[in-house]
Amino acid sequence: KDAMLRLYRNILKLHRRVLPEEMRSLGDSYARSEFKAHKNAKIGFVKEFTKQWKDYCYTLELQATKGEFGKNLDSKKVDTFNDEQKQQLERLESEARKIGGQS
Prior knowledge:
mainly alpha, 78% helix, globular
């Protein structure tokens, strides 16, 4: 649990450091809901969960150095998502479009 909390805090710090305000708000909200939803997850899931968030941090750092944020998802990967993940992706995309002015 300490490692998860540390990772969560590092994500919020990273958001503060590299993201524009409107993106930071969305990123913070998404991270908060994900970590809250998985705080009692089983260890096998937690390992993959933390790996994915660490990958996110690495990618965000790289994108920040280029000044370009975002990444297209591989359609093959999206096909492996369960219904809940697909719905979550749709909500995230909708929120991102609102921020980007592409309602």
